[in-house]
Amino acid sequence: MDHLSRLKLLFKHDEYLLQLNTGLNRSQLATDEKDQLSSPVPPETNAQPTPTIQREPPVTTPSIPNDGTFCPLLALSKYPYKYLQGETRDKVANRFFERGLFWKRQWDLYYIHLRPQNQQTVKHLLLVPVAQARQLLHEINNSLESALSFPTQNFVLDFTAHAFPFPVFLGQSTSREDKDQLEGSIPASSAPEHEISAPDDEYLAYAAMLKSGWVAAKGKRGKVSKEKMAQRVQKERDRIVCLQRLQRHLGLRGDAIIPGSSTNESPAENQESADTKRDAMDEKQPTPHPFWKEPIFVSVDIECNERCHSQVTEVGISVLDTRDLVGVPPGENCHSWRRLIQSRHLRVREHGHIVNRDFVPGCPKDFQFGTSEWVDLDRLGDTVRACVQAPSGAKDGERTLILVGHSTGMEETYLRKLGVPLLREGGTPFFADVVDTAEFFRVIHGETAVRSLGAVLLEVGIEGWYLHNGGNDARYAMEAMLAMMWRWDGVIPLKAEA
């Protein structure tokens, strides 16, 4: 069998290799031309020249710069099947995932080694930049005219917060075969651990992040242990307790504290049962209950460059002091309370030219609640810290501060990077509670997935303008919290409790 026949036999079932320019025709043509110009080759030495296969050079650089945040590729590939339901799941799967559509997209593949718990073999986790995942979500929402979002847990891994190994770029993939071929080229590693000096708690946080990514990427859900199931149930009940506590902070529910007990006593030890309705109230009258602990609510939204998430472009901060609400009727849908929110919009001068267009419609010039303020990058941390502190004259810890946001996980990460302390001296939390309007809305309505801020605003009767402006989003998250708490009667659907 000659070389040409052998190559055809080897590659005839490999569509990828068949598309490569092997150079066979050129080599044959060159040989024919040479034969015409030179003397015939003697029959006894007649042999086909060995063709040279010209392979396309491997892609050595990603198509977009990564900012240190990644999604587990396999978890992303199962998005509609694991996180959506009914007709929405079918539409998303049919238009973007089935028939190999998901794998035909261009993905920048990265990998990192890890050793799953209770396993001796070192595994690897395939990752793609969050920016590419958000581009897919943006296309889905445009196609379906929906407001879908990604899960808040296990779906986004932020490697910028840890001084440990960073994902390694593997190559670009535009098919399932590309992915498999690149994955097969990942070098073996006997141990993922690296000798890096770091605090134990930082390493544990890094390991927990990798574990969450591994769990999200697993093909099948294993049996959930009783202990883990109990933890999930407890976490959901903790959210319900926090919801009840939040209504007490706003004077919408009685303290249910034993008469004569201290107002510093935690309501978590005295909360009503989860199915206890709160009393109906007149929106034209001040609330009949005191504002428990008279907290200050601080809502934060941080916008960044969609192509490089380490570049913060906007910070929105809205503050509501419950002492300002004393004696003030809430008004229709808490309109009178919402007017008392103080809002600021900070724009980073060095990144002022950046406007997001590809994944989200950026609108940094359209702050609706005041005048935007330009801040130098090296002063941003100090400015944000000053905004989230208690009012001047109040001692540290004297006022109760509560953080508000829509999907607060990323905001907390960015606050740490900006130098905002999330723990006080002695280890007590800087914020007494964290109100995630996305999670709270999900729990109140017994849903399985969180909704976007725009979808939540629509449900609570608030018209939102120019979302994805940091100042507007921080303000609307605070307004959504007030409207949700006013509308919620205290009853949790059984689905959420389970």
| Outline type | globular
Whole-number count of domains: 3
Approximately what portion of the residues adopt beta-strand conformation? 5-15%
Q: How many DSSP E strands?
A: 11
CATH superfamily of the largest domain: Ribonuclease H-like superfamily/Ribonuclease H
CATH architecture of the largest domain: 2-Layer Sandwich
Major beta sheet, specifics? 6 strands, mixed
Name the assembly state. Answer: single chain
The structure class reads: alpha/beta
Report the helical percentage: 25-40%
Instruction: Provide the residue-averaged pLDDT.
Output: 77
Description:
It is a single chain. This protein is α/β, with parallel strands linked by helices and 498 residues long. It has three domains: 3-45, no CATH class; 69-191 and 198-217, no CATH class; 229-258 and 265-497, Ribonuclease H-like superfamily/Ribonuclease H (Nucleotidyltransferase, domain 5), CATH 3.30.420.10. The chain is built from 18 helices and eleven strands. It has helices at residues 3-11, 15-18, 24-37, 73-77, 79-83, 86-97, 101-104, 130-144, 176-184, 200-217, 226-249, 335-338, 377-388, 408-417, 437-445, 453-459, 470-487, 494-497, and strands at residues 69-72, 107-114, 123-129, 157-158, 168-173, 296-305, 308-321, 342-348, 373-375, 401-405, 433-436. The strands form two sheets. A six-stranded mixed β-sheet has the order 9-8-7-6-10-11. It has a five-stranded antiparallel β-sheet with strand order 4-1-3-2-5, sandwiched between helices. Strand 6 and strand 7 form a beta hairpin.
